[in-house]
Amino acid sequence: MRPKEKKILDILLNDLQRLEDIHACGVVRRGLEGIFPSTEEFAREIMPIWDTMKATMEKLFEIIEQYSDEGLDKIYFELRDYDVMFFILPRTDTALVAIVPALANRGLLEVEMENARRRIIEIIESGNES
């Protein structure tokens, strides 16, 4: 794993995944390629619908690809008892994604997600690999 990827994974694990209401998170693009903790780090509750979520997320990445240059910033969808939050990285086909309970405090989670997104963008835009 490259140094930038490790720094991003640290943000996912230490800043987001540690939050009680974030059941899974990652920085992903179409094909679910990207950086995310092992599914063993995900809350067990989401595993029965993980395949359905992956298929739904894949379709949303088509929208992200099409509209990211137009300023698309966030996408949310509900699936059963969960919300999936996409915080799109500017001018990319990549998003910071979190799966949370539908009844979670979305305002608090949005602040945490936005802070993480900003740090991730800084890492990606930094000139060196360290």
Q: How would you portray this structure in words?
A:
This protein has 130 residues and is of the alpha+beta class. Helices cover 40% and strands 23% of the residues. The chain contains three helices and five strands. The chain has helices at 3-16, 50-67, 106-125, and strands at 24-29, 33-35, 74-79, 82-88, 94-101. A five-stranded antiparallel beta sheet has the order 2-1-5-4-3. A hairpin with a 2-residue loop joins strand 3 and strand 4. Helix 1 (3-16) runs antiparallel to helix 3 (106-125). The N and C termini lie close together (12 Å).
Q: Topology, pairings included?
A:
Layout: H1 3-16, E1 24-29, E2 33-35, H2 50-67, E3 74-79, E4 82-88, E5 94-101, H3 106-125
Helix pairs in contact: 1-3
Rounded mean pLDDT score: 90
Series of H and E elements: HEEHEEEH
Please provide the count of β strands.
5
Give the % helix: 40-55%
Rough outline: globular
Output the number of helix runs. 3
Q: Main sheet: which strands, in order across? A: 2-1-5-4-3
- Main beta sheet strand tally, sense and closure: 5 strands, antiparallel
Q: Which value, in Å, is the CA radius of gyration?
A: 14 Å
- Counting copies of identical and different chains, the oligomeric state is single chain
Q: Could you tell me how far the N terminus lies from the C terminus, measured between alpha carbons in angstroms?
A: 12 Å
Short account of what is shown:
The chain is α+β, with helices and mostly antiparallel strands. The chain has helices at 3-16, 50-67, 106-125, and strands spanning 24-29, 33-35, 74-79, 82-88, 94-101.
